[in-house]
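Box 3.1 — From sequence to structure: DNA polymerase III subunit delta
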Amino acid sequence: MLLGHETAWREWHEALAGERMHHAWLLAGRRGVGKGSFALAAARELVGADQTEAQHHPDIHVLTYAPKDDKEERKRADGKPYELARSIRIAQIRAMQSRLSTRPTMGDRRAIIVDPADDLERNAANALLKSLEEPPVGTYFLLVSHSPARLLPTIRSRCRVLRFPTVSEAQMDLLLRDLAPDADDATRAAAIAAAAGSPGAARQFVDMELGKVAQAMGNILDRGDPDFHLRGTLAGLIGARPDRERIRAVLELARSVVAQRLEASLDNPHRIIDAHSELVRLSGEQPTYNFDAGLLAMEIGTLLAKAAAASERADG
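Predicted structure (token representation):
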């Protein structure tokens, strides 16, 4: 059992043992707290599969990012690296719904996992809503959500919510010492601070070697960047061709670094609030926008520089 899942498991098991199991569940919490792992394990229990069958059982259907296009689909078929789409598309929902016209294959229950439901295209979300409104007998939905506010209110209203809490810094430190024993103290501390209670995010920050990126962001916040030198350093550390996951992690890191300064700011925090708001906006756009890596790195650096005490105008 992953850290912080005890309450969610208790609620799930009580529902399984009850007479009327709710047909739709919203698994809500920060990215990286293990909601996807919980969804697969819960689906396995629901359909009576063993652990090795969870991802290949005919009555467990997982909807997530598919290959971006036919070319990338052929790469997947050939066993080559391929690029993923930035959203879950309506064609995937339609294909799932066509299966719902038949009975489950091996029992009387099937599980549909949507991970992450936040990234459903608008048409796909509306199509899914119809299945939630009129669920076939024996079909149960588990929607993994990092940002429930991005879901249609009508989808949220039809789901029972399971909340997954963040993990304490002490627990995170023990976990990283076990999972990433080669990480030095500075990298581990930066990862824990930036991950804001998400073990998965902390591990990702360590694996992506984002400790130096966090330090570069902190330098800009401490000193400003009147000659653009520090922004150039930051861009170099982010990389010229970061993939989507690295861009997302960098944006989350920047948000966390700025949020920490906001908590420590005792006077005139408006410049920090403004920077944080812009980083939240960029994070929201990231799943669907095709950002130029160099321009994005400079924009992040500029937001940090504007938030720095050194960049504040003397007249306030």
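Summary of the box: Residues 244-264 form the longest helix (21 residues).
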